[in-house]
């Protein structure tokens, strides 16, 4: 039997959720015929067949989280044996005796939670994740009573709902950002009273972001953590944060510095239509060099948007409002847009961030 395994999907992705089989055992398929669809990195990806032949076996079910290199489809014919395809990675056989009740750290490094094997076994039995438990023992040790307390609370809550698809990817990206980035945020307000009626807010924000990148290119960059190096990028490929019922999507508008407002608006409209239809090609979800979040269309004045590696900056726009300001010596009500710029302080200095934001504000304040 020839075994087709989940291939590398790029961008450092390690897993995908199987959402649809396009074949069944016994089907004859041709090379490049669609085999299955998966969701990962906030995009639906259709995986074609690398072989022509008859499908002998499917190794996963809809809803399974499949890791890179895991078997997907078995084809009739000579090839890799499938004897280990059902192996459960991580299953450990052990004896029935507890040799020692030594306190062990659960987690990475020295900052993990601490509990004895008996307490960890109790947590496993009750379905309690130790990271959720507040310890009451000496030196931060989790006691059995702590686990039982959390179990009682969970018994009164809604059943746990595993994150899947786009929400799972969002959670993983946010965890990566929290673990790697040294974030700092600066905020300011810009007077946009000079805008004409019906101004395209998103297009204006993109134009202003381009002006910021030209004034301070250091924010249109990727940071390489391992090498502690920064790559300033010439082309501006803008990730645009979009709120959808399934979670946060960040499709990429390519080369925004060379596109006129009409072309940008057409690209934004096409992007939203593709998101609604769940047909965004995976390559359009990858490779952003900087990000824009217009969260103010929902609510909020200021925020600390999250920088997702390898990018080093994200510009957020809050809710536009009218407020009294001093203008030409008089107190008048004018339209004000709040801005929040979060940057990775490992790669961007405060001065660079300030100059970027100043250029953004200057562009937004113009007619």
What's the quick description here?
One of its GO terms (cellular component) is cytoplasm. The protein has about 375 residues and is α+β, with helices and mostly antiparallel strands. It has helices at about 115-125, 145-155, 165-180, 200-215, 260-275, 350-365; strands spanning about 1-5, 15-20, 30, 35-40, 45-50, 55-60, 65, 70-75, 105, 115, 185-190, 220-225, 230, 240, 240-245, 245-250, 250-255, 290-295, 315, 320-325, 330-345.
Mind describing the biggest β-sheet?
Answer: 7 strands, mixed
Approximate shape: globular
Secondary structure category = alpha+beta
- The first-level CATH class name of the largest domain: Alpha Beta
How large, in whole angstroms, is the Cα Rg? Answer: 26 Å
- Tell me the CATH topology of the largest domain: Chloramphenicol Acetyltransferase
Series of H and E elements: EEEEEEEEEEHHHEHEEEEEEHEEEEH
Strand coverage percent = 25-35%
Q: In which range does the helix fraction lie?
A: 10-25%
Explain the layout of strands and helices.
Blueprint: E1 2-5, E2 15-21, E3 28-29, E4 34-40, E5 43-48, E6 53-58, E7 65-67, E8 71-75, E9 104-106, E10 113-115, H1 117-126, H2 144-155, H3 165-180, E11 183-191, H4 201-215, E12 221-224, E13 229-232, E14 238-240, E15 242-244, E16 247-249, E17 252-253, H5 261-277, E18 290-293, E19 313-317, E20 321-327, E21 330-344, H6 350-365
Parallel strand pairs: 14-18, 18-19
Antiparallel strand pairs: 1-8, 2-4, 2-7, 3-6, 4-5, 6-8, 9-10, 11-21, 12-13, 14-17, 15-16, 19-21, 20-21
């Amino acid at each position: 039997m020839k075994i087709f395994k989940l291939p590398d999907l790029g961008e450092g992705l390690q897993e995908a959720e199987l959402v649809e089989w396009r074949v069944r055992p016994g089907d004859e398929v041709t090379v490049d015929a669609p085999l299955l669809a998966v969701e990962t990195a906030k995009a639906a990806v259709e995986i074609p067949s690398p072989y022509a032949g008859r499908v002998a076996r499917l190794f996963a079910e809809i809803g399974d989280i499949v890791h890179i290199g895991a078997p997907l489809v078995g084809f009739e014919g000579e090839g890799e044996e499938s004897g280990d395809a059902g192996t459960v990675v991580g299953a450990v056989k052990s004896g029935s005796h507890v040799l020692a009740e030594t306190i062990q750290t659960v987690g990475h490094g020295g900052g993990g939670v601490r509990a004895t094997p008996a307490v960890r076994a109790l947590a496993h039995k009750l379905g309690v994740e130790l990271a959720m438990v507040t310890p009451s023992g000496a030196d931060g040790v989790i006691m059995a009573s702590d686990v039982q307390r959390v179990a009682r609370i969970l018994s009164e809550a809604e059943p746990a709902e595993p994150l899947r698809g786009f929400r799972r990817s969002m959670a993983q990206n946010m965890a990566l950002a929290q673990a790697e980035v040294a974030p700092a945020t600066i905020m300011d307000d810009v007077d946009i009273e000079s805008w004409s009626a019906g101004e395209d807010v998103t297009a204006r924000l993109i134009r202003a972001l381009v002006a910021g990148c030209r004034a301070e290119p250091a924010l249109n960059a990727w940071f390489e953590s391992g090498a502690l190096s920064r790559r300033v990028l010439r082309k501006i490929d803008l990730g645009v944060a979009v709120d959808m019922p399934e979670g946060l999507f960040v499709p990429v508008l390519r080369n925004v510095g060379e596109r006129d407002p009409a072309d940008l608006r057409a690209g934004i409209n096409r992007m939203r239509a593709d998101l609604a239809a769940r047909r965004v090609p995976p390559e359009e979800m990858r490779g952003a060099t900087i990000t824009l979040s217009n969260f103010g269309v929902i609510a909020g004045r200021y925020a600390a948007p999250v920088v997702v590696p390898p990018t080093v900056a994200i510009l957020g726009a809050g809710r536009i409002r009218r407020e009294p300001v001093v203008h030409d010596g008089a107190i008048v009500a004018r339209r004000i847009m709040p801005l929040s710029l979060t940057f990775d302080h490992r790669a961007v200095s405060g001065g660079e961030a300030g100059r970027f934001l100043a250029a953004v504000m200057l562009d937004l304040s113009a007619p």
